[in-house]
């Protein structure tokens, strides 16, 4: 198995406008799949980015150090189980128990989930996927994370903020091994403060705030080859505790099988 691969990855374009206008992404409908979006965010693709395979040294990468971690978790779910509310609730219970054991957490709650299905891609689907392939997915800023908590649990938000809380994402292939479009992660220790740009994420009824990333040749990216169904990426979107890794920047997602990804508090 190749130790390193080279891939094109996209980063926020370094535009003068961002000196006077904050980057923003405005969604005009509650339908997450709708293209009714207004944005001033632009990306540049950097080719030939080195991405290192962690296969064989998976245990060396830790959530609180690097911002991401590959963990083992057997699921009772089949891809079709996600079509029903009962199945999704069963999986949420599985993952909540898994995260409590992994993190030593007392309280774990699902915020959002999505199943990506590319089993029979059309030409139009392929073009849409290619437009986002290799583009870093934004993390929540500190203020954005608090807004998410206040939106989802308004009556408990004040109490939740008194203790450490994290917003995590879990990502696994539902059919394996995964051989195309693996997830790539940036070691947060290689990200400098000036690489990060705050951006407004606005949708009906909610204004969030995310972080975007400028390219820096010091960034170091990692992936795992042939990810199995029982291998789950756990990565941070936000952590309220200081002196640990915060949100990890990632790039490149999706495959021609089915994939589940989830946000958890």
TrEMBL record:
Signal peptide: none annotated. It comes from the Eukaryota. Transmembrane segments: none annotated. InterPro entries: AsaB-like (IPR044053). Residues 116-137 are annotated as: Disordered. Belongs to the asaB hydroxylase/desaturase family. This is CmcJ-like methyltransferase.
């Amino acid at each position: 198995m190749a130790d390193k691969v080279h891939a094109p990855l996209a980063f926020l374009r370094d535009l003068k406008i961002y000196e006077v206008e904050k980057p923003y992404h405005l969604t005009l409908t509650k339908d997450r799949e709708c293209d009714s979006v207004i944005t001033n965010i632009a990306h540049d693709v950097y080719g030939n980015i080195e991405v290192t395979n962690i296969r064989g040294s998976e245990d060396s990468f830790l959530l609180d150090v690097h911002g991401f971690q590959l963990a083992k978790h057997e699921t009772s779910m089949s891809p079709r189980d996600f079509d029903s509310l009962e199945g999704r609730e069963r999986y949420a219970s599985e993952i909540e128990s898994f995260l409590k054991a992994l993190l030593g957490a007392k309280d774990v709650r699902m915020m959002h989930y999505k199943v990506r299905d590319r089993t029979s891609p059309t030409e139009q689907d392929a073009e849409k996927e290619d437009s986002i392939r290799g583009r870093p997915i934004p993390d929540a800023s500190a203020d954005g994370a608090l807004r998410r908590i206040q939106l989802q649990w308004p009556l408990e938000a004040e109490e939740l903020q008194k203790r450490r809380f994290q917003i995590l994402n879990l990502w696994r292939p539902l059919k394996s091994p995964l051989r195309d479009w693996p997830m790539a992660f940036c070691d947060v220790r290689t990200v400098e403060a000036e690489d990060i740009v705050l951006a407004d994420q606005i949708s009906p009824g909610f204004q969030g705030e995310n972080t975007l990333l400028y390219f820096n040749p010091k960034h170091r990216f990692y992936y795992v080859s042939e990810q199995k169904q029982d291998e789950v990426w756990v990565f941070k979107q936000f952590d309220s505790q200081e002196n640990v890794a915060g949100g990890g920047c990632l790039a490149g997602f999706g495959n021609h099988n089915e994939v589940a990804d989830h946000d958890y508090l």
